[in-house]
Amino acid sequence: MSKELDPIRELREDHKKVKDYLLELIDALNKKDAQRSLEILVLLDKLGGPHFRFEEETLYPTLKKFFGEEYYQYLLKAHDRVIAAAKKIAEILGKGAIAEDEAKMLVSVIRSEILPHPIECEGLTLLTDRLSKEELRIIAKNIELSRNENVPLLEWAETIRDKKV
Ligand SMILES: [Fe+2]
Questions:
Q1: Mean pLDDT over all residues of the chain?
Q2: CA 102-104-109 angle, 5° bins
Q3: What is the pTM of this model?
Q4: What is the distance between the alpha carbons of residues 118 and 120, in angstroms, rounded to a whole number?
Q5: What's the pLDDT tens digit per position in 143-162?
Q6: HEC string of 121-152?
Q7: Distance 100 CA to ligand 1 centre (A)
């Protein structure tokens, strides 16, 4: 199975799904549909855990030789912001209902803290044609491992992830 997995295609597919979920979440929040919003948040949490994990465990460290330490740290901070935003959304949606001002605030948080991630992270694929077959193989293996372990984003952030938000 690992021989077949194309890490760049997987990365792009994840970003595409995340973008669709985020746009759907914005739509559900605008309609103040707390139940649907929570369902989408759970999907994002499930997808985001393995995704952030392989990015931080192999993809970003492997690409660091191209963009350097400062941009690497910037990427980790961008993940911090997504995690903090997801916690905020979970906290509000966990109440089971959503007020008008809360919905507006969460839409703004998604647009400024979360949506920029798939947009920007997708751009990193520009660099991946410079990676060796061996480097791509290691990333592919890590994608598989992260998906098999299947730890959702907020749980991963509080347990496995070294850097705490
Ligand atoms: Fe990403």
A1: 95
A2: 90
A3: 0.94
A4: 6
A5: 999 999 999 999 999 999 98
A6: HHHHHHHHHHCCHHHHHHHHHHHHHHHHHCCC
A7: 30
Average pLDDT over residues 110-124: 96
Residue-wise pLDDT for 90-100, tens only, equals 999 999 999 99
What's the rounded Cα separation, in Å, for the pair 64 and 81?
Answer: 20
Report the distance separating Cα 11 and Cα 7, nearest Å. 6
Taking the centre of ligand 1 as the mean of its atom positions, its distance from the CA of residue 78, in whole angstroms, is 10
Q: Confidence band (pLDDT; 50, 70, 90) for 4?
A: confident
Could you give the angle at the alpha carbon of 64 between the alpha carbons of 63 and 68, nearest 5°? 140
Backbone phi, psi, residue 72, to 5°:
-60, -45
Q: CA 40 → CA 36, 65, 75, 93, 160, distances in Å?
A: 6, 35, 24, 11, 23
- Give me ligand 1 centre to Cα 55, in Å: 7
